[in-house]
Design brief:
It contains 5 helices and 5 strands, in the order E-H-E-H-E-H-E-H-E-H. The protein is α/β, with parallel strands linked by helices. Helix 3 links the parallel strand 3 and strand 4.
Length: 132
């Protein structure tokens, strides 16, 4: 389902990161995991990704700060999905204001997450194609 899609997973909980990575790789995605927003920024400098799963609460640099840096400093328009344990209306608004494109709450339905990823990646690639 996700074959050919490169995904960056920014998640500070190692067990959660392993579970998400396993589920995405099971769907044939290429996955790189990092432990915080600072490492996500470093990974973006090294490699191209199609989408980022960004935990909101991480040490050193949280998902909000990392997303703002990606959008405002790096000027990268990659789809970013906010991932959090429980997303309130306030967190939804804050994540979208920070530049994230969508959000999912943990625990998530793996097929639902795959659909969100596919929709965002397809929409992003269509937008890039029409801009050329």
């Amino acid at each position: 389902m996700l074959q050919g899609i490169n995904i960056l997973v920014a998640e500070d909980n190692v067990l959660n990161q392993k579970i998400v990575t396993f589920l995405l790789q099971k769907e044939h995605a290429a996955v790189v995991g990092v432990l915080n927003g600072r490492f996500a920024i470093d990974a973006l400098r090294e490699q191209n990704f199609d989408v980022i799963l960004m935990d909101l609460q991480m040490p050193e640099m949280d998902g909000y700060a990392a997303t703002s840096h990606i959008r405002e400093v790096m000027h990268i328009d990659i789809p970013i999905i906010a991932v959090t344990a429980s997303i309130s209306d306030e967190e939804q608004d804050e994540s979208l204001s920070a530049g994230m494109n969508a959000y999912v709450s943990k625990p998530f339905d793996p097929q639902g997450l795959c659909k969100v990823i596919l929709n965002l990646v397809h929409e992003h690639k269509s937008k890039l194609y029409t801009e050329k």
